[in-house]
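Protocol step 4 of 5: obtain the predicted structure for the target chain.
Materials: sequence only (see below). No template structures provided, no constraints applied. The aim of this step is simply to have a reference model before the mutagenesis design in step 5. Sequence pasted as it appears in the construct record:
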Amino acid sequence: MSCYDGAKSMHVICVASQKGGVGKTTISLNLGLALARAGHRTLLMELDAQGSLCLSLGLPDRARPGIAEVLTGAEHIGNVLLRTRDPQLHVLSVGRVDPTTVAGFEEALTRTGMLTGMLSKLESEFDIVLLDCPAGLGKVTSRALEAASHVLSPLQAEPLALRSVGQLLALIDRVRAEKNPRLTLIGIVLSMFDRQTPASLEVAETLWTRFPGGIILDSVIPRDEVFLEASLRGSPLLLMQKRPPPLARVFDQLANDVLDRLDSQGGAATEEDDGPIPLLV
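Step 4 output (structure tokens):
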């Protein structure tokens, strides 16, 4: 595993999925922290107007300014970066977007060059940016793919999800051909995998046999209630308690997988308090 230095360009990873409810935000959050703990200056950038990322961090809905305020010129991007307990990890929330302003937010975000311009202002600050996109392959996700260097796609281990793989790959090919020739697929990560369910096992086997060339990552995110508990408590798995649940190691493995692909392609709790540690400070 290698650390990136200032001479190397910032990696912008679009975390996208055609289907909702696949654990995309959970993966973005826990992967981001794992990358930061591995020594990489990492930014979690929330592009989903629903604000699921910050809700997973225990922030009140639309509590702080973020991308929305940058788009309107009310805030400078450097002023709305949220610090975390890991100095290598920052969060850029969607900001104060309510149901009546979602359309306007998405229209402003998807204007030509807007997202690319925001990212260019962060190049000297971060090694890796994770773009947590809304579900589906709509305009926000398309713009994120145009601005990204890489794509990581969670795929739920269920039969219906198999149909979405071709749609995602087709979109990546189109964006690469028309807008962003540098765009590279890191891989597809299987999520919500249940080894006790025959359908889940069948999906995994189908993916590993149908798609050659290592498109499917070795790391697998299992279905487990600990993810729901972490979200309810506003904490990544690694900070849920003094001794993180064993499942947290899955994201260290995923971080290693991601860093290997990138290479090949170009504070503590006290002894008495073993409760969840909030990531944001």
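Step 4 remarks: DSSP finds ten helices and eight strands in the chain. The two ends are 28 Å apart (CA to CA).
Proceed to step 5.
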